[in-house]
Task: structure prediction
Amino acid sequence: MSESATTSRVLVVDDEPDIRELLEITLGRMGLESICAANLAQARDQLGAGTTFQLCLTDMRLPDGNGIDLVEEIQAQHPDMPVAVITAHGNVDSAIRALKAGAFDFISKPVALEKLRSLVGAALELDQLGETRRDELIGSTDVMLKLREQISKVSRSQAPVHISGESGSGKEVVARSVHGNGPRAAGPFVAVNCGAIPAELIESELFGHLKGSFTGASRDKLGLFQAAEGGTLFLDEVADLPLATQVKLLRAIQEKRIRPVGANEEVATDVRLLSATHKSLAEEVKGGRFREDLFFRINVIELQVPSLRERADDVGELAQALLARIAINNQIDAPTLSDGAMHALIGYRFPGNVRELENMLERASALCENELITADDLQIGSVVSPSLETQVSAPAGPGQASLEQVAGDLDGYLADIERRILSEALDAHRWNRTETANALGISFRSLRYRMKKLALED
Result:
């Protein structure tokens, strides 16, 4: 096979001869063929001549137009060709406009050759992806088909993606699909829940720290940006980041460099950033809790994950897939759903979305008899015992928590009440589980499950 048949070609569009020469030399050392154009007209001529290009590098400011015009034209006429734009240093607005127009990525002047080689390598990986797709999404409704199509498009870009949707709707699954179907699929996928890290530790977790930089820093530590090097960093519940950390995150995204806590110098970072939240970032910006400049930087592309209510026809398919996963994780035979159980699931609105469905099925798998899940096993609408429901719905009296007091940890509050009821019942029957189950009106298996869940096993 001839070299021309195997060598990848890059269209370089820039009106500065020195830049064209620098790019041509660098690409040549990577074994790539460069064809140069000094303006939009020449670029259009090259694209119309029938030559196949695997990548286009274009300056934003050209004598006869804007590089974004070229991005849009290539997107329309050659959708499989990635385009990277070269922007003036610090011109973030131009970079964002280019990414929104469909650019694969951007690089700022003066061009750092290490970053250029990394960008080109990632872009050329797209040719190797073929039609193979990693699809962890379950469902075939119209909204899910649309979401898959959007994921397929954004996966080919390096642009930051913000994933919005209700709690439990599957935002991390979407993030993993974006990562798994893009050129960084072979790299690490690092996910972090920003709301689960104490405010005083979040900067160290994200950017790392040096030994002795603060009390307790007994050794150097790499941050999550470094852990995700060459791959994807997924910031879940990004709206919970403290404002001070938001400033540093903005700089990390814009400059593609981070400064570990206690370090004097910044270090280059190569990650794709994905973020998610169940909150409205626009409302958080209005309330002064989220920086507007960071909002525009991470929200270049937005993916909306539908709630389970919006795709009720997927419930059956989801339930079967989740039961299979639960069986594998617990090393049991997968139980089946009775017609009544399936009817109950389809008729339920699932305020907790897919996460609630999975928890419900996991509980039912533990409670069911003869590997058949009935509607009663699902406990829809009556997850807690009648006595517990009475206590929860009763007005708060002395020693009881009010709605406002438990709003931050409702699950923990309910668990404490259930634990107390079970403990009292077990004590009354001298921890005879059979008698306790009969007294509570539940099965022995249900009692055993609840005791294990609440750490009440003697």
Remarks:
- The longest strand covers residues 272-277.
- Residues 82 and 290 are 32 Å apart (CA to CA).
- The longest helix spans residues 410-428.
- The chain is about 45% helix and 15% strand.
